[in-house]
């Protein structure tokens, strides 16, 4: 009898060990591949850094390690800030194909699209990881829809919001910022504009030789279009004049949030980013 108990314990230990290893293989940072949903939400108002950030996020998603990551992007997820929008539909189309919604052109349609995808993921047992590359007003609306449809779900456990910018927080309607902090797993990480502060620093006024590392022709086309679009609108008609972009450098600081979610917080700067994700 004692021998049979020992054998049973060994078999169960092996079973749980295999399950643990399988689960670990599905993890990319904090993200459970095949189960979770990644939402990349960009305000695109009025700083052109979001346009570079769109290309940066798409570069990560193109990497083979992200092959089975379920994702969706949102353009126009802005808050209460003044200034003109930066239209970049062509960049979003190159970056995300059919996996994006335009909240600037039609807020309600975008909200319904995203809410449907989010609710479907949650009903299947997955979590939601939101990189708020801008303000959190759109995220607040999504969470409200989730609570309306799934009142028993604890959104503080299953919806994770990542924010890196104090300016973005201050440009979110105060009631919406309070709402997402109370109703989600809200993570404020160090600012992605700064190097050596605990997250990657993707702001540089110096030119970055990204062409050396981006050998994929689709990604090269995307980066060229993103850089062209950012230059076209930077500082124009009262839009924010981003010094890094004006000087021929780069600003994809919002991508620090995506790096944090997927476990690439060790990357230091823009050059290291392209070394990590640029090669096919």
Structure explained in plain terms:
By secondary structure, the chain is of the alpha/beta class. The chain has a single domain (31-277), classed as Inosine-uridine Nucleoside N-ribohydrolase, Chain A. The protein has helices spanning 2-25, 49-62, 89-96, 107-123, 137-149, 155-158, 166-170, 174-183, 217-233, 243-246, 255-262, 270-277, and strands spanning 27-28, 31-32, 37-42, 70-75, 100-102, 128-133, 159-163, 185-188, 203-204, 250-251. The protein has a six-stranded parallel β-sheet, with helices on both faces. Helix 2 links the parallel strand 3 (37-42) and strand 4 (70-75). Helix 2 (49-62) runs antiparallel to helix 9 (217-233), helix 3 (89-96) runs antiparallel to helix 9 and helix 5 packs across helix 8 (174-183). The longest helix has 24 residues, at 2-25. The chain is globular and about 50 Å long. Residues 1-22 have low confidence and may be disordered.
Fill in the keyword field for this structure.
single chain, 280 residues, alpha/beta, Inosine-uridine Nucleoside N-ribohydrolase, Chain A, two-stranded antiparallel ribbon
Discrete helix count: 12
Oligomeric state of the chains in view: single chain
Counted up, domains total: 1
Which shape, going by the Cα principal axes? globular
Mean pLDDT: 93
H/E element sequence? HEEEHEHEHEHHEHHEEHHEHH
Give the radius of gyration. 20 Å
- What is the count of β-strands? 10
Characterize the main sheet.
6 strands, parallel
CATH class group: Alpha Beta
Beta-strand portion reads: 5-15%
What class do helices, strands and sheet pairing give?
A: alpha/beta
- Unreliable spans are 1-22
